[in-house]
Predict the 3D structure of the following.
Amino acid sequence: MRIYIWYHMTALGAGILLDLAVGDPHWFPHPVRLIGAYISWLEKKLYPEARAGIQRDSQLKQKRGTILWLLVFLTVMAVTGAVTAAAYLLHPITGIAAEAMLTCCALAARSLSSESRKVEWILIRKDLAGARQALSMIVGRDTEALGPEEIIQAAVETVAENTSDGVIAPLLYAALGGPVLGFGYKAVNTMDSMLGYHNERYESFGKWAARMDDVFNFVPARISAVLMILSAGILGLFSKVYSGKDAYRIWKRDRRKHLSPNAAQTESACAGALGLRLGGTHLYGGVLVEKPAIGDARRKPVTEDITRTVRLMYLSECLAVILAGGVLALIPAGL
C-alpha cells in the first residue's frame, strides 16, 4: 500500500508542475469540456421543457436536476477511476503519467494566471475595449460598460475566488483521492457553473447543483482563505503592498458578505491583503445583482494589482502542496 502512496505523491507533484508549465492549451481537448457537453446533453433529455417554454412543477424539476447531478458525478468518477486503474495495471510508470495528466487537467492555476494577466497587459496598452473583451472570458458579469478600475476589480475578484475553486480545492481533493476525487470535484463545480443560477429556468432544476457545490467547497474555501492570509504575510516581508494583518482582519469581518457561503472567504482575504474594496452591485446578463462590498478602499485599484493577486494565488498553492504532502507523508508505513 505504501508504494502506491509514493506513486500518488509523485503523480500529484508532476501534475501540479505540468499545470504550472503548460496550463490549459486552447487546442487541447480538455476533459472539463467533455463534462460540460455531457451535462448539456443530459439537460436536453431531462429538461426538454426549458427550450419549449413549458411550465412544470418545481419539485419535479428539482428531482430531475438531482438525477442529472448524480448521473454526471458518478459517471465522471467511474470513468476517471477506470482510466487510472487501467493505466496502473499496464505499468506503474504509465499509471503515474496518466494520474499526472489528469491532475494537471483538474487544476487551473496557469490558465487563470494567463487569462487574468492578459487583461492587465491589454489595459496597460490603453485598449479599454480589448480589456473588456478579455475580461468577459473569465467573469460572469457584463463587461461592456466597465471602466479601467472596475475591470481591475473584476479580474482581482475572479483570481481571488478561483484560487479556491480552480486551484486549492481540486488540489486538495486530488491529494485526498487522486484523479477520481479531483475530477469528481470538477464535475460538481462545472454543474454549478452551468446550472446553479437563481433565475426562472434554473431556480429549481439547478438547485441541487448549487447546493452541492456549496457543500464540496465549504472546507476547501476556508483552508484557501487561511493559506491566502499566510501568503499575504509572507509577501508582506518583501513588499509593503501586502498586509497579512489586514488580510486576516478583513477576512474575519467580511468573509460572510456574499450570496455564496464560500466565495467571500478568499475574496475578503485578498481585499484585505491588497487594501482594496471588492464586490458591490453589478450587471449579470442584463440583470442588476446587488452584492455587499468587501474590504476597505485604502487606495484605488491599479493594473499591477492583477499580478499581485496572481502571486497570492501561486504562493497559496505552494502552501497547499506543502500541507497536502505533509499529510500524505504522515500515513503510517504499515498501510
About this structure: The chain has a mean pLDDT of 92.
